[in-house]
Design brief:
2 domains, 3-stranded antiparallel β-sheet, 10 helices, globular, Prot_kinase_dom, transferase, EC 2.7.11.22
């Protein structure tokens, strides 16, 4: 067993982490690439929480980078629309590390699949505003989420969105350094990543938000490529094939020089979203802008006139409620079309309690 892993676990214990046995596991509610989530009860207070066991069993060099980044991002990013981490607890073995998080009843992907009809326009505005507020906080703290998608957005029965799963999140600096392109689940991945860009920014999160916006309107993912090339073809077919005129630097991207893409005419978004207002279409278009430097930011999007026109955003307390399947025995398996892997840059995490 590696000395690094032992040191990492000892570091947690020395930081005052409590035992996982203070929580009673009720049922397993989700399993993804970076951990298993249980619904659990605090034995002292009776409070229901989400208990995420971090996957460490295949690591030989201490904590996996995804674990360190997730803990780091969640300790930094405190916001009403980001899932709250209450504490880190440890089990009996060196591979038993858990995040204790607030329990949230639903994930947006499952809700969209099971709802008989799409969200109302007023509800879409509320959910999109909340998502943008949470992402704006992340970007203000120099954090890129790098895996925004509907299955990573939790939703309470009071109509409140919580951004979750920070396993791919990364702090970035200025100037931007090289980072892996293998981030963001395929259907929500920005074209600069698909085309092999080694430098990217918060704009990749904004592209994902554009895909989520469209999914809220239609109940189905906007682009459902079978692989990276097919994903690009679907994007180009809807938005038009990019050029140097609309995206300076496009022709120099690695995969642009490797593949010959079909030439599609400019954007078909209006034909696809016929019932969306002009302001709504403008916001969607600016989120799905090819040139990352011209793509709208979270702060800019929050002030977009789409949110000021009628109908106004619905009060979250007026949202309908749905039965929570996570309180039963059904396990939600999180499948990605193509599983992204985090890169392996060094991360330093402060495990001391937040002041």
């Amino acid at each position: 067993m590696s000395q690094q892993r032992k040191a990492s676990t000892d570091q947690l214990r020395l930081a005052g982490c409590r035992s996982v046995h203070l929580y009673e596991r009720l049922n397993r509610i989700a399993e993804g690439s970076y951990g298993i989530v249980y619904r659990a009860r605090d034995r002292q207070t009776g409070q229901i929480v989400a208990l995420k066991r971090l996957k460490l069993d295949q690591e030989t060099q201490g904590f996996p980078i995804t674990t360190l980044r997730e803990i780091q991002a969640l300790l930094i990013a405190k916001h009403p629309h980001i899932v709250d981490v209450k504490e880190i607890v440890v089990g009996d073995t060196l591979t038993s590390i858990y995040l204790v998080m607030e329990y949230v009843e639903h994930d947006l992907k499952t809700l969209l699949e099971e709802m008989p009809s799409p969200f109302l326009q007023s509800e879409v505005k509320t959910l999109l505003l909340q998502l943008l507020q949470g992402v704006a906080l992340l970007h203000d703290h120099w954090i890129i989420h790098r895996d925004l998608k509907t299955s990573n957005l939790l939703m309470t029965n009071r109509g409140t969105i919580k951004i979750a799963d920070f396993g791919l999140a990364r702090k970035y600096g200025s100037p931007l350094g090289h980072m892996t392109q293998m981030v963001v689940t395929l259907w929500y991945r920005a074209p600069e990543l698909l085309l092999g860009a080694k430098e990217y920014s918060t704009a990749i999160d904004m592209w994902s938000i554009g895909c989520i916006f469209a999914e809220l309107l239609e109940k189905v993912p906007l682009f459902q490529g079978r692989g990276e090339i097919d994903q690009l073809h679907q994007i180009f077919k809807l938005l038009g094939t990019p050029s140097e005129r609309v995206w300076p630097g496009y022709s120099k991207l690695p995969h642009t020089q490797t593949f010959n893409f079909a030439v599609y005419p400019p954007s078909n978004l209006r034909q696809r979203f016929m019932h969306l207002t002009n302001h709504g279409l403008d916001l969607l278009t600016r989120l799905l802008t090819y040139d990352p430097k011209q793509r709208i930011t979270a702060e800019e999007a929050l002030n977009h006139p789409y949110f000021q026109e009628n109908p106004p955003p619905k009060d979250p307390s007026m949202f309908p409620t749905w039965p929570s399947k996570s309180s039963g025995e059904k396990v939600r398996l999180i499948h990605s079309p193509v599983l992204p892997q985090a890169d392996h840059a060094e991360v330093q995490v402060d495990f001391s309690p937040a002041s």
